[in-house]
Amino acid sequence: MNNIEKLNELDLLKELGNIGAGNAATALSQLVDKEINMNVPLARIVSFNEMMDLMGGSDRPVAAVFLRMEGELSGSLFFVLSIEDATKLVKQLIQDNQLTEQNLPSHELGLSALQEVGNIISAHYLTALSECIGLVVTPSVPEVTIDMVGAIVVTGLLEISQFSDHSIFIDTELTETTDNLIQKTKGHFFLIPYPDSFEKILAALGEK
Q1: Treating both helix axes as pointing N-terminal to C-terminal, what angle do 12-32 and 108-133 enclose, rounded to 10 degrees?
Q2: Which CATH number fits domain 3-206: 3.40.1550.10, 3.30.450.20, 3.30.450.40, 3.30.420.40?
Q3: What is the pTM of this model?
């Protein structure tokens, strides 16, 4: 059994994801002064083809926050939501009933809120990983975009795909409770390390 199979069998990535999700939920709750919970139904290492399928295929329009991994590890990060879930999440956060799926791409406050959510989630997932493997890793300034899956991920895969074909996938579910009403939003977090960084991660986690 190789390191990838071992990690997927041990469910260690899900454990790390839940640690990051718990801390991110606390930060988001403080930011918007509402109760927000997060959990990780699934976390595993997937191929690039599987990654595209998990996001709904290359032609599916999505909202995505893109960052780069910096420090002792390097690579790309994506937090991806369907247009419907992105709109629902942002509407809950900024309390703007005029926000729609159609005007989200040009809604400055909405995009800013989405960018901040992606930044918080990515930062806490990376912190959990960093503390586990003992390497300093930080996210870059985030960029938010709305486009088809294929167009969005090509930025993160263009250089890396020449040497590697795997990413770390963390399924993310956000739950907000307001006036006894529960709203759920599903997103996908993808960490795509450069080959040398991926080997460091696999080696460190494989020893756990």
Answers
A1: 140
A2: 3.40.1550.10
A3: 0.88
